[in-house]
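Hello everyone,

My group is preparing for a crystallization screen and wants a predicted model to guide construct design. The compound we'll soak is pyridoxal-5'-phosphate. Before spending weeks at the bench, it would help to have a computed complex in hand. I've included the protein sequence and the ligand's SMILES below. Output in structure-token form would be ideal because that's what our pipeline reads.
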Amino acid sequence: MTTEMPLSFPRRVDLAHLPTPLQPLDRITEKFSTPHGGPRIWVKRDDLTETAMSGNKLRKLEFVAGEAMAQGCDTLITCGGVQSNHCRTTALVGARLGMRVQLILRGELDGLPDGNLLVDQLAGASTAFYPPREYFEDLTNLFTHWQAFYAERGHKAFCIPTGASDGLGIWGYIAGSEELLADCRDAGFIPEHIVCATGSGGTQAGLTLGCHLLGSEARVTGYAVCDNAAYFQRKVREDIRHWCRLSGNTVDESGLNIQVNADYIGPGYAVADEPVYRAIAEVASLEGLLLDPVYTGKAFYGLLQELHKGNYRDCKNLVFVHTGGQFGLFPHRENFPFLL
Ligand SMILES: *Cc1c(COP(=O)(O)O)cnc(C)c1O
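Reply:
Good plan to model first. Here are the tokens for the complex, ready for your pipeline.
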């Protein structure tokens, strides 16, 4: 089955507690299997990569921080929404490594800081807020501005793109694929499907490329939480090409199976309909597993719908990668009126 090629990983800073657990969700599996059967559902607990630094971004930032340090940088600059998990993780990683962190945030501070933003501030990151329009139109200039700002003060800043999704960050999920496939082997199965939420595409790119390089037949599907399927097709390819340029590897792109399900985005990024909130409550009460409304809850809700339609009925084992995001749950507290 495998044509395992030895990968030579670049410099990496150990930050995550690895391997994360792989657990079966048997009550969910039982509840959502159709008369035609369906897969056993497993969850790869990447929400447990750390406590405060938890989630998928930490795997990517291990490689990003390694490169920033190799380049002699003392400052990290990155960007995201006000409730960005990636920004929160970067803020803590910077503090952990003794680096300054500048966050370019989309949106405004209304009221007291909550969720991820509260953690950003606790971690001592500097935050600059921009209205969405300015943010999207000027993001490149904003990075240039802040890099120059730190340079004028004698600091060397390393710029990290949205979600640390680029040819460097995706190493995190190439390594993550290796770990996940080994977990499955240890648990006695070969996964046919791997599912994750996809937002900036890097997790999906890393898993897709990792499985490809490792000769796994597992089909990786990203459940989109924003944009559309064409966007992720393009973005995943772009990250993989960038990885090839940086690492000097070549990949036969025709052999890449990039699967996107964009049917469950709902009203938009970070906005969800009631069924998503109900799915979050159901998974928490049935399995003791906490999902978030922006990424994992939306993706898992989509997965449950697809299972219900019988779309995975020929599959025996499916792994959902829990990418974290729990801090983002609390700012959505008003969306759970049905619990009262
Ligand atoms: C960022 C994020 C994702 C999406 O990962 P990408 O690599 O950006 O596509 C999924 N889940 C959570 C909790 C995230 O914070």
